[in-house]
Amino acid sequence: MSNTPHTLQEEFPGQAAAITALKASDPQFARLLVEYDEVNDKVHRAETRLDLITEEEEEHLRKARMRIKDQIAVALRK
Fold it and tell me: Does some domain include residue 4?
């Protein structure tokens, strides 16, 4: 388990320009980015024990982050 934030720049290296362009042109994609950041922050806070949650809640957050990341990846491939 890592307690390092999974920033989009780390998850999608070399695609910053594509992310910025898609964010500006696609409101749904922009919402995905906001949602990813919110969930990612919650995961990071849980992993660093700033927020005390159950292991099940933490696992649920990690899975949600992965689902959102997958949606972002699909949008970037289009």
Answer: no
46 within 8 A of 61, measured Cβ to Cβ = yes
What pTM does this model have?
0.87
Residue 30 lies in a domain: yes
Residues 6+ apart with CB under 8 A from 73: 12
Contacts with 56 (C-beta within 8 Å, 6 or more apart), sequence order: none
Q: What is the count of structural domains for the chain?
A: 1
Q: What's the pLDDT score for residue 2?
A: 53
Q: Which domain holds residue 22?
A: 11-77
The 10s digit of each residue's pLDDT in 16-51 is 999 999 999 999 999 999 999 999 999 999 988 888
Distance CA 19, CA 3 (A): 24
